[in-house]
Amino acid sequence: MKHADQEWHKQLADAKVRITVSKHGDRSIMDRKEFFSKVYDIAAQIPPGYVMTYAQIGELLGTRRFARIVGQAMSHAPEELKLPCHRVVNSKGELAPDYVFGGKDVQRDMLLKEGVVFKNSTCIDLKKSMMFSPYEQ
């Protein structure tokens, strides 16, 4: 990794994440470590047979616009936490790219064994398998 890239990654790691708590309209600043920790707390609570989207987790932390930051958190999840990262998917219900989990087949097999319902071989049926589904309202 080039020095400039290393410096950019260090700045990213030290960056502050601004969130708006929508219930009260308060603004607070949370550092990256605290934000990632909150993402991990939420992900740890997803039971087998269900999934959540990056945007859902972002919304629980203030705004759906944090979906990409939630994705970053999940990609940096420490293995020792043994988080069910395979249960966090994009808003279309699509499986992770091939470089994650060892490929789409691995993630799909993990989710199928837990009872997650799929529309087809690469897309989860979010109406049936999403935790806190907006479709239930």
The largest sheet has its strands arranged as 1-2
Q: Just give the CATH class.
A: Mainly Alpha
Strand residue percentage? 15-25%
How many separate structural domains? 1
Number of helices: 6
Structural class: alpha+beta
For the record, the CATH architecture stands as Orthogonal Bundle
Q: What's the name of the CATH homologous superfamily?
A: Winged helix-like DNA-binding domain superfamily/Winged helix DNA-binding domain
Number of strands: 6
Mean pLDDT: 81
Q: What is the CATH topology classification name?
A: Arc Repressor Mutant, subunit A
Overall morphology: globular
Distance between the termini: 48 Å
In terms of per-residue confidence, which ranges show pLDDT below 50 for 5 or more consecutive residues? 1-6, 8-24
What fraction, in percent, of the residue positions are helical? 40-55%
Rg calculated over all Cα atoms:
16 Å
Q: Which H/E pattern describes the elements?
A: HEEHEHHEHEEH
The major pleated sheet works out as: 2 strands, antiparallel
How would you describe what is shown here?
The protein is an alpha+beta fold and 137 residues long. The protein has a single domain, classed as Arc Repressor Mutant, subunit A. Helices cover 40% and strands 15% of the residues. The protein is built from 6 helices and 6 strands, in the order αββαβααβαββα. It has helices spanning 3-14, 32-43, 54-60, 67-75, 104-114, 126-129, and strands spanning 16-21, 26-31, 52-53, 88-89, 118-120, 123-124. It has a two-stranded antiparallel sheet with strand order 1-2. Strands 3-4 form a two-stranded parallel ribbon. 28% of the residues are buried.
